[in-house]
Amino acid sequence: MGAKEQELVPLHAGFDVVYRGFHRRQVIEHIENLEEQLRFTSLDRAEALAQAADLRKILEMTRQDLEEARARIERLETTSGSHASATERMHRMLRLAEDEAAEMHLQTERECADLRERTEAELAAVRAEAERESAAMRAEAESELYATRQDCASRAAAMERRELEMERRCADLEAQHRQRADEVERECAEAVELAQVDADRLLRETALQCNSLEADSERKREKAQQFFELTMTRRTNEAAQHLQEQEALARARSEFVVKMASREAQRRLAEVADRTAELHELRRTVHSQLSAARTALSAAAERVAPVHIPEQVAAS
């Protein structure tokens, strides 16, 4: 029985010890294994109970068959004596069936009792193992909680010491800051004074430079004005000379154009006169030809005058 319990619920090899107790993953895996074994044990128990129920059903069926056989035997016994041998055989069969049914019933009850005992023993072993592990884990958790509390207390004390140290350092830093602020204020005042002196000096130098620049600019302006006047006079003279040259050139061009136009007009007038003379000559020629034609026509008309016939004269 003990060997079977060790096979069903194997002992654990132990957990690794880490900083805050046992290794969490190993503990969780072991608990999961125990739950799985408990689930398998429950399944085995359910199968055993189902098998016992099946055996009870078979026993009931056997009892029913036995009752039916007894009823048939009783019916046969009530028949005639010719069936005595058959009745004796039926009695033997009935006794054998009763013995077999009783044996099956006893065997079933023994198997059910054995299975129940094994299941209860396994459940008790699993429960005891789980309780032992739970107690060990509870003790480990309590020890870890105590260690954690001690650690928290030590850390709180360390934090208080650090807080006091920080307050002291803050006070020192504030004193240094005030001292540094005073030094900076003094340095700023000195820098402002130096800057004021430099600014006054720069203003004086700037005023002198401005005066000199104004004088230089006035001289340059006068020179520029003179140069501008000279330049404007020179450019005015050049423009007048250029204008005169342009007028002379335009006058020469106009005279040339007028001369060319006169020549062209004279040429065209000569052509017109020649053309007019030609037309007059042509007119005279045509007039003479027309006069000659009229004369010829008159002569021809006289030649073709009608001759008076005597009959025509008498008729008239």
TrEMBL record:
UniProt keyword Coiled coil present: yes
Top-rank lineage group of the source organism: Bacteria
Coiled-coil segments: 31-79, 116-223
Keywords tagged on the record: Coiled coil
Name of this chain's protein: DivIVA protein
Organism: Lentzea albida
